[in-house]
Amino acid sequence: MFFVSRGLQEVLPMSILHSAAKHTTIEVSLSFQALAVHRGSPLPGIRLSNPQPYMSLISERPRIVMIENFLTPQECQAMMGLAEPRLQASRVSTGSTTSFRTSSSTFLLDKMATHPAVMPFERRVTKLLSLLGPLAPRALHKTEAVQVVRYNKGEYYAEHFDNRAGNCGLRAATLMVYLSDVPSGGATHFPRSTGCRCEALDALDCFKDDAASFTATTLPRMRPHPQPYPGLRIQPKQGRAILFWSRLPSGEEDSCSLHSAERVRRGEKWIATRWLSDLEQSAAASEE
User: Fold this and answer.
1) How many CA atoms lie within 13 A of 224 on its CB side?
2) In angstroms, how far is CA 118 from the centroid of its own chain?
3) Which InterPro entries match (predicted)?
4) Domain parsing of the chain, residue ranges
């Protein structure tokens, strides 16, 4: 008997698993020509040492794309380590601190913007934007500096619109990466999300090699995950990224993009955020 994973050239005999000790972990290095998503353990008794990124559409309004394994654990740790000594109380668009945003944050400016700890994140954002195709009727470009945020136990950010803060004229979409797991609480909540049919999008199997080109294949349809009513909650998971649009293709605000960072109940929550513009004039500035 063999375990066979769709899209793989390799097979694994059952005898290997039977002969292994009960608690042995078998690490396998596989070469993927294309990646089919399996919701759960890739193969019984096997742990892939380098999980491959993949992308799924999880909401149509607001449009939300989720990318698993966008960053490795080591890359997440490096970004947190760079930002931690520079954290200050988070502020809102008026420049003041408020009771509805309780966290610490910093923008990675000047030399930090090109620090080795930041470059894997920046390169992958650039690659992701080049792959969106019809998902982004208007091309997206980087705008503003990367922001790293830490939420301690009990901290949160109440419901808000991203396109009404910061350089709001440029914020058409937000790319946010969870740099840490959160034992309890800390979900990103979109209370007005309409959900979607949960069709899987193209697999992205080369994020871990920034010099490589992407290969992709159409994935099978996936069933939606049950969500507490109303809206959509996304639980932080280290390395997971979400990309969501604050504006409609017409340029009008998407009222469904209202969202919050729910209160952290145990542990810490770390995120890195890149705001994106759909205005051509911001493209040059984004490359500086």
Assistant:
1) 15
2) 15
3) Oxoglu/Fe-dep_dioxygenase_dom, P4HA-like, Pro_4_hyd_alph, Pro_4_hyd_alph_FE2OG_OXY
4) 1-49, 52-286
